Amino acid sequence: VQLQESGPDLVKPSQTLSLTCTVSGASITANVFWIWVRQPPGKGLEWMGATTTTGTTYYSPSLKSRTSISWDTSQNRLTLHLQSVTPEDTAVYFCRREEYWGQGTQVTVSS
Question: CA nearest 79: which of 6, 2, 10?
């Protein structure tokens, strides 16, 4: 199973950040959780949300109002949407499934 994150590396404050996780070697319709986490500079990992793509999705309470996860089964990929970003959303963003992790993608929020 391989996961690859992609998206912009620089986003302006108040914009919506959208990151895509493209999956190979497994179907995103498998009954497992696909998870988004992030790591701000100098801090630990922060769990953001998870979905099975078959009807169960959870979000971190602290991010729930700004976060959504969508998916495209035809492209076998998931997309994280984070609205109204601030510099505090600067982080490396990862998607993962169980023990499988993407390499992560650095996102900086700055004007």
Answer: 6
